[in-house]
């Protein structure tokens, strides 16, 4: 299941996008022709929040990242990247560098994500989720998709 339709955000279980008037606050995204419409970003944000809420509900008492399966860790990567790009986190999802969302910051974080995935680093699946969100946000891929659990 992926995100490809556009609907207005009602706010997911973890909170609505920050709003300034009727527009979400995407500092570097406003006016960019390659960025998805704000309504589509809001729909994707709601979707990932619901997925993360389901992951956290299935792990009473919390869990270490190592205790989660690949689809869950991937989804958390999408969530961490989304939080940064919608203005809810002031640091990049993989490097932890304090940064606003700029073209250069997106490219740099995408390069780190790609490196972690290609080298199969211990956090490759989390990085794959970050890569998926940023790739979708900048128009490198048409749809934001999630892996399905095995079994």
Note down, in words, how this protein is organized:
The chain is mainly α and 151 residues long. It has a domain at 49-146. Helix content is 44%, strand content 5%. It contains 4 helices and 4 strands; from the N terminus they run βββααααβ. The strands form 2 sheets. The chain has a two-stranded antiparallel sheet. It has a two-stranded antiparallel ribbon with strand order 2-3. Helix 1 packs across helix 2 (70-85) and helix 2 (70-85) packs across helix 4. It is globular. It starts with a strand and ends in a 6-residue tail after the last strand. 37% of the residues are buried.
Concise overview:
With 151 residues, this protein is mainly α.
The description of the largest β-sheet is: 2 strands, antiparallel
Oligomer: single chain
Strand percentage: 5-15%
Mean pLDDT: 80
Morphology: globular
Extract low-pLDDT stretches.
Answer: 1-15, 17-31
Please write out the topology:
Blueprint lengths: L1 E2 L15 E2 L2 E2 L13 H20 L12 H16 L17 H16 L5 H14 L6 E2 L6
Antiparallel strand pairs: 1-4, 2-3
Fill in the keyword field for this structure.
5% strand, 4 helices, 151 residues
